[in-house]
Fold this sequence. Notes:
This protein is globular. The longest helix is centred in the first third of the chain and has 12 residues, at about 75-85. Helices cover about 5% and strands about 40% of the residues. Strands 23, 24, 25, 27, 29, 31, 33, 35, 37, 39, 42 and 44 form a twelve-stranded mixed beta sheet that branches. By secondary structure, it is mainly beta.
Amino acid sequence: MPHFPMDSPDSVRSLPARRSVLGAMAATAAAPTLLGLSSPASAASAAPVAQPRALPGGGDLGPNVIVFDPSTSGIQAKLDEVFRQQESAQFGTGRYALLFKPGTYNGLNAQLGFYTSIAGLGLSPDDTAINGDVTVDAGWFNGNATQNFWRSAENLALTPVSGTNRWAVAQAAPFRRMHVKGGLNLAPTGYGWASGGYIADSRIDGSVGPYSQQQWYTRDSSVGGWANAVWNMVFSGVQGAPAQSFPNPPYTTLDTTPVSREKPFLYLNGSEYRVFLPERRTNARGTTWGSGTPRGTSLPLTQFYVAKPGVTAATLNAALTQGLHLLLTPGIYHLDQPIQVNRAGTVVLGLGYATLIPDNGVTALRTADVDGVRLAGFLIDAGPVNSSTLLEVGPTGASANHSANPTTVQDVFIRIGGAGAGKATTSMVINSRHTIIDHTWVWRADHGTGVGWETNRADYGIRVNGDDVLATGLFVEHFNKYDVQWYGQRGRTIFFQNEKAYDAPNQAAIQNGSVKGYAAYKVADSVTTHEGWGLGSYCYYNVDPTIVQHNGFAAPNTPGVKFHDLLVVSLGGQGQYEHVVNETGAPTSGTSTVPSTVVSYP
Length: 602
């Protein structure tokens, strides 16, 4: 692969030779979790029908949560074993969480493949110190990192062996609550193509080198420096971030993040597992843990129903009704009815990319219009029967004020196709006010199994109906029509990454009335107040390169609807944009893969 200089934004001609079909899905079967029943009386006694026993909280985390302590023997061998299985298993069924108890670990290199999460079990990242590396590279894909999806690192302190840790990831690969006592290299060996990524609540003592990374969002962190930019680098609340300079270099820098609340995480208090719930912050800047114990509350694991693959949706809902939270251990969960979250403050936390598959066209998960629900750390994979929606936050018409205690959707990823044919009309619907969407990748697959313009039909990615919704780190790609539709008032988005659907067969297939193509990000005509920072849309119409997309962004032309630092890119001239936002912004042209930008709109 070519070497891309670190100091030349236009030197990376990042054509997406990306995302080719990889192997078939491995077949595994999950053992069912049985719901215990009381012993029925004999029929002759005519006793009442027995009721289910109360579901227990807490318990075993299952075989795919692997817990280490500093005295564990063979740690490196186990890490290598998991990596060999997961390195190229892009659409496989393996799911793993690698958890490290507080202490010091020497000489480790944890290479992470697909559906693998690594995390420390301390209250602070510095409680769990690895003198070694947590590595993502792209050897499995010939040095191309654009498909390094679905893996994560959280809550660890690293002292890299070479002084710099390599984290060459693409979408759906969060780096949260990490302390790197050195530098961080976001490019693969050889500096091949890369398309990431997301950092939050982390401290990088040295410099971050994105090199070939097309885009990146960093939130509420501290960095010792930032080496370069290609198309779209966005920072909010980051100490040490480069100054605002879009489009040359393309840095969008906000001093603070308006509202944030970090993702819940599992930790050990002595020998007891608990889940920490970080508090909400306003105008946040820097990490939550830099001055010691983070602020927030915690829950014992005994207040969670610890779910295993094979459990039914009815059992999950019974646990919720009983007042338990949900901890989804690694694996695949088939649902014949929606998981229904009705209680304020409910936590649904996944480990190791626990995956929900709705069967028979149901919605995977719905919430009521209540305060403080936390949804985090799981993947929703559309089933073969079309679902009208896959995730709904709040019912239609939700209107309650949740400003003091919003619902958060964090590292919740959605996929339509790739692992098999899947369909969904709208992937994520946000009805509740004040919801925070903090890092999501909503992806209609462009490669894998069950992929085609109608095979994995999915018209809309995210629809926001609720007012006062904030999105920090929005990745939404390849939908047949609009990728994002925003109907709520006072919405805000900090960082957006999009590719239009590669596989549109012709211009007529994407025609939107008299408009050429559906905008990637559409703000409804009824909206009077909206704001976005650092938003990018790319096209790669390789089936019909003559397709023209009128614009990447469409919104009412009113003073209250504002955009900062927008770009559109034609990847190698496979299709073109006429404008950036509405009728504003120069068209893309030729095969140069140079962004067309708008610094401020209107």
